[in-house]
Amino acid sequence: MFSISSQNNSLTISFLSFFSRTYSIVMASSLLTSPGMIPTTGSAVVLRSVLPFGFSLPSLRLTRPYNKSSLFISCCSPVSEKPATSAIDLKPVVERWPEYIPHKLPDKNYVRVFDTTLRDGEQAPGGALTPPQKLEIARQLAKLRVDVMEVGFPGSSEEEFETVRTIAKTVGNEVDEETGYVPVICAIARSKERDIEAAWEAVKYAKRPKILIFTSTSDIHMKYKLKKTKEEVIEMAASSIRFAKSLGFIDVQLGCEDGGRSEKEFLCKILGEAIKAGATAVNVADTVGINMPEEYGELVRYLKANTPGIDDILFSVHCHNDLGVATANTIAGVCAGARQVEVTVNGIGERSGNAPLEEVVMALKCRGAYVMDGVYTRIDTRQIMATSKMVQEYTGLYVQPHKPIVGANCFVHESGVHQDGILKNRSTYEILSPEDVGVVKSQNSGIVLGKLSGRHAVKDRLKELGYELDDEKLNDIFSRFRDLTKQKKRITDADLKALVTCGDEISSEILNGANGKETSGYVPVPQISSVV
Ligand SMILES: CC(=O)SCCNC(=O)CCNC(=O)[C@H](O)C(C)(C)COP(=O)(O)OP(=O)(O)OC[C@H]1O[C@@H](n2cnc3c(N)ncnc32)[C@H](O)[C@@H]1OP(=O)(O)O
Ligand SMILES: CSCCC(=O)C(=O)O
Ligand SMILES: [Mn+2]
User: Fold this and answer.
1) Is the CB of 190 under 6 A from ligand 1?
2) For residue 347, how far is its CA from the centre of ligand 2 (angstroms)?
3) Strand 59-62 to strand 10-15: parallel, antiparallel, or no bridges (unpaired)?
4) Nearest atom (ligand 2) to Cα of 255
5) 69, 330, 487, 509: which could join 29 in a potential S-S bond, CB 3.0 to 4.6 Å?
6) Structure confidence by residue, pLDDT tens digits, 130-146
7) What is the CATH number of domain 112-395?
8) Type and span of the H or E element at 308
């Protein structure tokens, strides 16, 4: 069924199943007796093997020790019986954080997560935060294990300067003993010495300080906003980078604002000059969210292919969501070779926001191994929901129920056909494991009852409540349940009990609230909460 090969410090198990394209793998501990073996991070399972006639076969790459004597690995192929992510992903005993080298990644598939919730996210209209809130979010971002957090614009005000400095002094020095993890603390600056000095004075206390110097590169921005020529903009960017280095910054990123509307040849030129001046990373921002995924991916590919020295530094992507494709553009950038993603929690940011961290990270976790050549991040995805909730509460910017990954409806089912599928096997309609994103569910399994629900779900819920019904009785209850949904949007446990116990009369107790707040319009789903 499978073959095992060993190379260097890694073991590859290739599964030779021609019969099924769905995989559920149980491995005995005897396979994994070698000390020093754990799954590669991010996507525990790396699928690589390809059959001659195009079928994908999974292989599992193991490189360090497991803390379990036996392993149950659930992995998904393009068609899977298991959620694509799994709460029982293999966990290492102690996983050391890779050494941080600003311009270099520990391996070619590592994607660095640069969170900008506290800078671009805070720029969301109505999203301003107090200094203590920013500090608390920074601590939570560290729990989430973001590689880099961009925490503010020190040159913009005294208060912002102090806030960034406090985060640098605290969160920027809290090294996790077990893993060695400590976040990079980044500050943004315009291409102005005053901003760059303020950035240095604020973040220099962090173990790993970083600056993002931005400059506009599109004709529109250069002409109307900066009122500068191309040559002047190049000189401004290069001299700013040199100035930042002269102050003590080792990690300097140049951000090309409005890169998505910039001339490609000009971008190559300015990026090349930035690299010569000592930049360790560059980004090309789709500042106005105008690019389409193919277009943005193509831009990244072009710049990676045509900029001298680009492969010696980190290429970062920064996408806005004006046309609803920020996540897709970010992923297209990664597929084109970018290895840092600039994202915000819940996707908050200017106008329609930035690429949401949770979407990009879960897309890579869920599909990185299958369709993106094994890219992965080291985000602790179980902290996603807690982080999302904190950001919602502090900014007052609440996500819609159907927001991917963190919306209240993500693991909830109201329609009969779906409920029936979920009750038979969750993977029929869920691709993620709720626990993987920090969601715990109550015993009613994310099933809510309403107008579109079916008999299976009603019967199942009644059984949970202690009522075992024969088909005739169920049909009767179901018919009255349907009647009730004409008057109530959400049918509660109390309603169900009353339907069973009240005979033909629908009690006034049931209809209480029929016109009330709780049953009109959207009703938040109560059975989901986050695990911190
Ligand atoms: C695309 C982005 O998200 S970039 C981040 C933007 N974030 C913010 O703006 C939040 C914080 N901003 C602020 O507090 C203020 O805007 C400040 C303190 C930075 C500047 O305030 P003010 O001095 O009053 O200037 P104001 O904001 O009105 O105008 C911006 C100035 O910066 C200049 N500027 C804009 N981008 C750049 C750049 N990349 N490099 C150099 N100068 C720039 C503009 O041309 C304009 O300069 P001008 O006065 O010579 O015309
Ligand atoms: C170029 S990255 C920094 C500025 C920014 O947030 C943007 O351009 O969208
Ligand atoms: Mn932005």
Assistant:
1) yes
2) 14
3) antiparallel
4) 1
5) 69
6) 999 999 999 999 999 99
7) 3.20.20.70
8) none
Q: How is the chain split into domains, by residue range?
A: 112-395, 416-508
Ligand 1 closest atom vs CA 192: 41
Both ends of the chain: CA-CA distance in Å?
40
Q: Is the pLDDT of residue 14 over 60?
A: no
Is 331 in a helix, a strand, or coil?
Answer: helix
What amino acid occupies position 226? L
The residue whose CA has the least distance to atom 11 of ligand 1 is 156
**Contact 192 CB / ligand 1 (< 6 Å):** yes
- Looking up tokens 């910039």 gives 262
**DSSP label of 398:** P
pLDDT top residue among 521 and 296: 296
Please, are residues 301 and 310 in contact by the beta-carbon 8 Å criterion? no
- 156 in contact with ligand 1, CB cutoff 6 A: yes
The rounded distance, in Å, linking the Cα atoms of 278 and 216 is 19
**Measuring CA to CA, which residue among 382, 365, 330 is closest to residue 42?**
365
Q: Which ligand 2 atom is the nearest neighbour of the CA of 116?
A: 6
Query: Does residue 254 contact residue 215 with C-beta atoms inside 8 Å?
Result: yes
Separation of alpha carbons 527 and 492, rounded Å: 12
Atom of ligand 2 nearest to the CA of 188: 3
- Ligand 2 is surrounded, with C-beta below 6 A, by 120, 214, 255-257, 283, 285, 287, 318, 320
Alpha-carbon gap, residue 218 to 32, rounded angstroms: 54
pTM: 0.84
Ion ligand 3 — residues with CB under 5 Å? 120
